[in-house]
Each structure stands twice: as structure tokens, then as C-alpha cells.
Design goal:
Layout: H1 6-10, H2 18-32, H3 41-57, H4 60-69, H5 71-74, H6 87-99, E1 115-121, H7 123-128, E2 130-141, E3 157-158, E4 167-172, E5 175-180, E6 189-190, E7 203-214, E8 223-226, E9 242-248, E10 255-257, E11 260-268, H8 269-274, E12 276-282, E13 285-291, E14 300-303, E15 319-326, H9 333-347, H10 354-371
Parallel strand pairs: 1-9, 11-15
Antiparallel strand pairs: 2-7, 3-6, 4-5, 8-9, 10-11, 12-13, 14-15
Helix pairs in contact: 2-3
Length: 372
């Protein structure tokens, strides 16, 4: 019976990546494994077929030969193939992460976990920079035992189950697996007299206070990395890092857009019509803003250099002031009469409201078209 194509056996395309090839083999092997299908001869044959296909395609040299010459290229009688590796080796490579380490040795000192701290800043702090103290809980090395986990004056001893290797072999049917030693959990050592402070863990939970220097111009989503301020590593390993995640609180006046700031400036009807000079706030203090006569609501004025200096990049942004013409409220009778007189005067000539005239002309034209 002719052999099936190896790619077909594993259900993958010929341009499959190494990672996807491994996933496909793992899925088939878990499904057809003899321990899961006792007495099923067909499943066992398919399992062996998948093993043979993966053994060939997972090796770059063999895969290249197979892609060029097919099964004949891997036939050792033709001189093109190489000796096949044992199934235990392949199974260890593919399933080592599930069964505890595959070919890995004892677990020595490992790097500690990274930590994240969410820091909320005011807009002023984010724009100008600041130095902020934070207090965080961390797993730190035990001072009493120096991180060894053994009671002061004692030391760890070689694990009797794995003889210091950190791994033990377990038989699984017709092959064997390596897995992390359950007694020492991969350390290769056992502690007969554990430290009273850390209960043999070598690490204890502490709170520490840090001063974080916030650079000027940080924005929402930026991260500040504090090297070595994360959790202490197990088995005396180096500490991880602390990442400070920046969030910026909403401001009552300004909104930030990258290196620019935006704000709304309410002005009176009279100032909008006649023009004038207004005081507007900036993060550096008050400045004068000259508003020309006949200014309409929504007009934007740019104050250059009154924005933000970004952490990455050059130049300072601008402050964009959007004018909002405010309608007067709570008028006296005299004020109402004055406005009524002004209204009558303005209505006598359409040139005072050019936008209003064009809008009403457009509305009239619209309804005339509907009638026709």
C-alpha cells in the first residue's frame, strides 16, 4: 500500500509554519494515542503514521528532501535519508510543556515576575513632569535565609528522588517521559529544616515605597519601566521589573490631543460683535487673547507654544481656544427693550446677518421645489 502524503497525514498545507506543524501533530497525537484507544489497531496505525510524518517534516533538512523527492528521498536504501529519531524524543519536544519539561534539567535560579502599577496623574503633572511616591506589595527575597529557604545555619540537601537533576522519568505505555520531580519541584534540592520567616519559599511578601520620576509630556497609555523593582526571582534569581502604567485625569478646562491642548472660551454677545481683549488660562498662567469684531461662535484661535512638549519628539504644541458666544440670561426690562430696539434695527438690513439670509433663502428654495 502506497504511503500517504505527510502533509495530508497531518492535515496541513505544504507551506505550513513550524509552529502550526507542531500544533497539528499535537492535536492528532493526543486524539490517537494508544493509551486513549486501547485495543484499537486502526488508531495505533494512524498514530504511528502521524509520528512518522512529523518526524520527517519537523526536521528542516528532511523536509527539504521530502519536498523535492517525496518518500523515496527519505528512504535510507536510496542514500538520501537520515536515520529516524526515537519517538520518545519527538514526544518530549512536542508535549514537554504539558508533562513538565521534556528534556529540561533542574530548575535553577529564575527571574522574578514583572509587576504593573496604575498611576493616575493630573494633566499638570503629565505635562510638566513630577516625582511621585508609590507603595506596592512585592515578593522580596527573605532576609533571614538569604533567599535559600533553609533555616539560618542549615542548608538544602540533594533531592533523593531525582539525585539533583530536578527531573524524573515516568513510563507511559511503550515510551517514557521526563517530568518535573514532584518532591523538589524541579529545584534538585530539598529543605529538611525550612526558614521560619518564609516557610522555605525563600521569598516573603513586603510593601515598599518607591519614588517614580515622571518625565514631562507623558500621556495616557505610556509606561515607565523601573528595572529590578518587580518580584524577587525564585531560588535566588534576579528580580523582575516594575512597569508604571500612566493614566491622566480629566481636566475641568483643557482637553489634550497629542501635543496640543484645546479649551472653550465663552464670550459675551457684545464682545463678539464689537471685539475686545480677553484673559484666557494656560498651564503657564493667564495670557491675553485679542478677539476681533464680528467674531462668530466656533471660531478657533491658536496660541502657539502653549501646548505640550512630548516625551518623544521635538517642539511644543499649541493651545487652541474655541470661542463660544454666550446668550445673555436674566435680563431686566430695560435690557430687553434695548435688545428689542437692536433687533428691529438689525432686521432692517440683511447685510448684518449674511449667514442667516443665505440659510433662509436656501430653505425657501427647498420648499419651492417641493411644491413644483
Amino acid at each position: 500500500m502506497a504511503k500517504r502524503d505527510y502533509y495530508e497525514v497531518l492535515g496541513v498545507d505544504r507551506n505550513v509554519s513550524d509552529g502550526d506543524l507542531k500544533k497539528a501533530y499535537r492535536r492528532i497525537a493526543m486524539k490517537l494515542h494508544p493509551d486513549r484507544n486501547p485495543g484499537d489497531a486502526a488508531a495505533e496505525e494512524q498514530f504511528k503514521e502521524a509520528n512518522e510524518a512529523y518526524e520527517a517534516l519537523s526536521d528542516p533538512e528532511k523536509r527539504q528532501v521530502y519536498d523535492q523527492y517525496g518518500h523515496e528521498g527519505l528512504d535510507p536504501n536510496n542514500g538520501a535519508g537520515r536515520g529516524a529519531g526515537g519517538f520518545g524524543d519527538i514526544f518530549g519536544d512536542v508535549f514537554g510543556d504539558i508533562f513538565g519539561g521534556g528534556r529540561g534539567g533542574r530548575s535553577g535560579p529564575a527571574r522574578g515576575s514583572d509587576l504593573r502599577y496604575n498611576m493616575s496623574l493630573t494633566l499638570e503633572q503629565a505635562v510638566n513632569g513630577d516625582s511621585v511616591e508609590i507603595r506596592i506589595p512585592v515578593l522580596a527575597g527573605c532576609d533571614d535565609c538569604g533567599g535559600s529557604g533553609a533555616k539560618p545555619g542549615t542548608s538544602a540537601s540533594t533531592c533523593p528522588d531525582c539525585n539533583g537533576a530536578g527531573q524524573v522519568r515516568v513510563s507511559q505505555g511503550f515510551f517514557s517521559l521526563q517530568q518535573t520531580c514532584p518532591r523538589c519541584r524541579g529545584r534538585g534540592e530539598t529543605i529538611a529544616d525550612p526558614c521560619n520567616t518564609c516557610a522555605g519559599a525563600g521569598r516573603v511578601e513586603k510593601h515598599k515605597t518607591l519614588s517614580v520620576k515622571v518625565p514631562a509630556g507623558v500621556d495616557v497609555g505610556d509606561r515607565i519601566r523601573l528595572s529590578g523593582e518587580g518580584e524577587a526571582g525564585p531560588n535566588g534569581g534576579p528580580a523582575g521589573d516594575l512597569y508604571v502604567q500612566i493614566d491622566v485625569q480629566a481636566h475641568p478646562i483643557f482637553q489634550r490631543d497629542g501635543r496640543h491642548l484645546h479649551c472653550e472660551v465663552p464670550i459675551s454677545f457684545a464682545d463678539a460683535a464689537l471685539g475686545g481683549e480677553l484673559e484666557v488660562p494656560t498651564l503657564d498662567g493667564r495670557v491675553k487673547l485679542k478677539v476681533p469684531g464680528e467674531t462668530q461662535t466656533g471660531k478657533v484661535f491658536r496660541l502657539r507654544g502653549k501646548g505640550v512638549t512630548q516625551v518623544r519628539g521635538s517642539g511644543v504644541g499649541d493651545l487652541l481656544c474655541r470661542v463660544i458666544v454666550e446668550t445673555p440670561v436674566k435680563l431686566t426690562d430695560e435690557q430687553r427693550q434695548l435688545l428689542q430696539d437692536l433687533k428691529t434695527s438689525l432686521e432692517s438690513n440683511s447685510k448684518h446677518s449674511p449667514r442667516g439670509k443665505s440659510w433662509f433663502d436656501g430653505v425657501k428654495s427647498f420648499f419651492d421645489e417641493l411644491k413644483s
